[in-house]
Amino acid sequence: MYAALFCFFASCNSNVTNKELNEILSNSLIKYDDTGNKQVLNDSYSFLNKNKDFRNDGLKTEFFLSASGVLMSLEKYDELESVLKRSNDIDSFTKEKTINNLNFYRFKNKDRLKAKMYLSNNVNMIAEQAKNNPKDTMLYSEYFVYRTMLVGKEKSLKEVDSMFSDYSQYGEMFKELIEDYSSDPKSGVNW
Q: How many domains does the chain have?
């Protein structure tokens, strides 16, 4: 699928739409995850740079997650931060959380204490947001993931268990995330 999309758009010199760009970037992340071939990401990065919205305005919601994933996977942290800061399309909460993620990756191998501080910042921001949005399962899922990165899977699961006696009220996605993390031996503090 990725190869067909790439060949189609590579043969066209016109600008790809934001929706098409998102599809190319998303597929390249999947292909990279499957193969470990960074050239797939480099190829999709060239499409990102050809997109006029990206060049002119930075990140757009239509391709924010996929573009962030490609830029982070290519370790283009400064570029991601720059386009994120000049984007008017991304809300301040998401910007700050993403910049904390960038800083975590910048420092995780150099200064663990500083890296941990950026994860803690995200945990605190998400917890504060969750108080105002108690039924937002995405926030609880993010909270769980960041807490797991900070304190490990066992402590995180105990905390979540004490916070939520009945997962069903928080939605199937959250329940599945917890079950996946509980059974995945690679989850937890692995940085």
A: 2
Domain assignment present for 106: no
**Is residue 100 included in any domain, yes or no?**
no
Do the domain assignments include residue 98? no
Each residue's pLDDT tens digit, 154-185: 888 777 666 655 545 555 666 666 667 666 65
Q: How far apart are CA 167 and CA 157, in angstroms?
A: 12
Locate tokens 């500083």: which residue?
A: 114
Reference 68, options 57, 83, 89, 53; nearest CA is 83
Both 75 and 132 in one domain: the answer is no
In whole angstroms, what is the distance from residue 162 CA to residue 20 CA?
43
Is 118 in contact with 110 (CB distance < 8 Å)?
no
Quote the radius of gyration of the chain (alpha carbons, Å): 18
- Say which residue the tokens 């386009």 belong to: 83
Note the pTM of the prediction, 2 decimals: 0.79
